[in-house]
Amino acid sequence: MIDLYTASTPNGQKVHIMLEETGLEYREEFVSLGKGEQFDPKFLKISPNNKIPAIIDHDGPGGQPISVFESGCILLYLAEKTGMFLPTEPRARVETLEWLFWQMGGFGPMLGQAHHFRAYAPERIQYAYDRYSNEAARLYQVLDARLDGRDFVATNSFTIADMAIFPWCRLHGRQGQSLDDFPNVKRWYNTVAARPAVARDMNKLEDKADQTKWTDESWSNLFGAEQYRQHKSE
Ligand SMILES: N[C@@H](CCC(=O)N[C@@H](CS)C(=O)NCC(=O)O)C(=O)O
Hints:
Layout: E1 2-6, H1 10-22, E2 26-30, H2 41-46, E3 54-57, E4 66-69, H3 71-82, H4 90-120, H5 126-146, H6 160-169, H7 183-193, H8 196-208, H9 216-223, H10 225-228
Parallel strand pairs: 1-2
Antiparallel strand pairs: 1-3, 3-4
Helix pairs in contact: 1-3, 1-6, 1-8, 4-5, 4-6
The structure holds glutathione (GSH).
């Protein structure tokens, strides 16, 4: 059994997709980020960076429990555990990891900044707004070029790289992008969205979206004093 600490956000969705695709048995624990549950000392013990997703696999290496944080590491861990969605052939494996790390180091963080400066910043800071919107467009172009003539990002089959990238593309509007400008991304996006495990998951997560309204408390937890206060793990 795997405990998944999650929220209905792109980084959480990656792990939901992997768990649904592999058929591993799991239970979800939704962490309310607006209410500051990510600072709970128990949660910090398994996720010291106060972010979802994190998992506890009760049947980890040697049959002992293990906790894993960072979505890319969770995908890799589950791929190695199941032997699914990460090719073993060395070149295909490197290509999959290249695109997984591309998502973790660039596509995710830059698009996250685009969300922040376009949707959340209390004032419009034109330089930051343009910088992250332009960087988002550049990254979509890189992805579009990669997908030219390919069905999937890393290899000729669906891998953890596709799982990592897809949930971030769902929010293209918030990043100031239109998939019509990236026809290869659009085709791939529709292919991935139509996978039964992905479709099932996305429907379920729509209902679980954190309904917390922006209040002084939720703002402070995510972007203000509480976020930057030192929190102690159990
Ligand atoms: N690099 C991390 C990023 C995780 C992340 O940014 N999680 C966000 C939600 S998508 C979060 O938990 N934010 C809560 C906070 O910053 O306090 C990963 O991929 O797991």
